[in-house]
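Retro notes - structure team

What went well: the batch runner handled both jobs without manual restarts.
What didn't: labels got mixed up in the shared folder, which is why I'm recording both outputs here explicitly, each with its sequence directly above its tokens.

Job 1
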Amino acid sequence: MIKVFLVEDEIVMRSGIKNTIPWEKEGLEFAGEASDGELAYPMIKKVQPDILITDIRMPFMDGLELSELVKKEFPRIKIIILSGYNEFEYAKEAIHIGVTDYLLKPITAPNFWRL
């Protein structure tokens, strides 16, 4: 089963993603969650998910910093960045790091898990 790890500082958004997507039905395992990159990184190293879904702007360590660390240590992990910021510089940096997809919030559940 494909393991997915979620990093999102907004509790409503994190809960919405976690509780709305039919993980098992889609062949996925919800492998863990964290509220920022600093908390997430050691958990990701332990779980080694196949997919990382992360917000871009979070306290302590943002999604770009986290993505860069994860890509260096685990290049096979696919990364999906969620962003409420429609700024080209963020998307450009995400591409440079090697993220798989960059989605703008708000995200609707039916469109999200079709990726």
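Job 2
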Amino acid sequence: MMNIPTLTIGADGQMPCIGLGLWKIEKQQVVDVVVEAIRLGYRHLDSACDYGNEKEVGEGIRRAIDEGLCTREDLWVTSKLWNTYHHPDHVVMAMDQTLEDLGLDYLDLYLVHFPIAMEFVPFQTRYPPEWLYDPDDRMPMIRTAAVPLQDTWRAMEALVDSGLSRYIGVCNYGVSLMRDLLNYARIAPAVLQVESHPYLTQDKLMRFCAEQDVSVTAFSPLAALSYLELGMAEPGDSVLEQAIVQEIAARLGRTPAQVVLRWGVQRGNAIIPKTSRPERLRENADLFDFQLSNAEMASISSLNRHQRFNDPGVFAEKAFNTFLPIYE
């Protein structure tokens, strides 16, 4: 079983620096994937209401515990507040539904999924509600809501007060939103989860978070691979095909994916690569018996081209008929 190092979160939290990203893993696969990941040594599971598979993730957790592979206390389970539940009246009910689906009494980390408030969709109408307010409209669109992020954060803090989540944080925030959040937060965000990979290094954001003692989790750490099937990336966008990555991998006797993932954790971040293949689960976490030199780290970082694949300002207009930018 692999032993994955941890990052210290808050006063005494220990979040494994590699987690299993559960986005886009099919319901019929995810139970077995979660069990196999835990069997291999994964203890960090990154989930969300919007992924639509939390009941199956919960079944995987229960199976792993029943088989003696882990205890609940061994796991770090993250989930996320969806955009339609930003109003303070809806935050607790969203958390309660996630806990019920996962079969848990508490989360280790609950994140605001996007800095976008959308109109509430009742559970009985559709769950998870996804992006469109009414998919049956003749021209279905995203419908935003006038809910300040500060109001949402106050409700997130109450989840920590009540013991429903040990830590709270945010996703998809930039430096300006992080600076603003830290000015009003009674309970500071423990983690910022953002897209980051060699094509999107986000150096200023990483430095700011380090100075503020906010840990960073990088999603899509292999860049385009998560987006090819969605039509949000082209095959030529693969960072794994870059000559620099290929040369380092050949020199070290590692796969290009391992080199890119090692770059991610060696920057001091957690990473949450997604896979449903057992051999890839092992490969993605087998990163701790080699190290990249300073020159190798710099050469991979030099691939930065500020290329963001997960950008609501692009995909929301194409897929949901709504211009919804959150980045400059």
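One thing worth noting from job 2: The radius of gyration is 19 Å.
We'll revisit the folder naming next retro.
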